[in-house]
Amino acid sequence: MYHVVIGIDDEETHAHRCVEAVVNLPGDFDEKKVTLIHSFIDNPSGASATQVHSVREAGEMLEEHGIEYTVEESSGDPANAIVSVGDETDADLIVVGGRKRSPAGKALFGSVTQSVILGATRPVMVTGVED
């Protein structure tokens, strides 16, 4: 079983691209297992990750392909949560969505994707964005 952790933010486009990347990995769908992780930065209403539209969309796409998945949630720093879930589940791969950002934008606002790449002890796949 090939286990993939996908970091899911609020962007539906990122979720779709991440799931497409997993679907297109070599191997049969029943040989893949996915953990979707969504980290809440601010959650005053107490919502669960399964209530987040992008997480639901990712789950539905995985179900359409017969890929087993679970949903994890956390609060705080998304990069730390993604890396932690990857380590805790002994994932074979972490998948995150990328954004186009200037070097100054990364320095000022940080980058979850960059932090995952630098902090992970396992392979990380970054999906692109459309122009």
TrEMBL record:
Pfam families for the chain: Usp (PF00582)
Annotated UspA domain residues: 3-127
Domain of life: Archaea
InterPro entries per record: Rossmann-like_a/b/a_fold (IPR014729), Universal_stress_UspA (IPR006015), UspA (IPR006016)
Coiled coil: none
PANTHER family: STRESS RESPONSE PROTEIN NHAX, UNIVERSAL STRESS PROTEIN UP12
Similarity comment: family membership: Belongs to the universal stress protein A family.
Protein name: Universal stress protein UspA-like protein
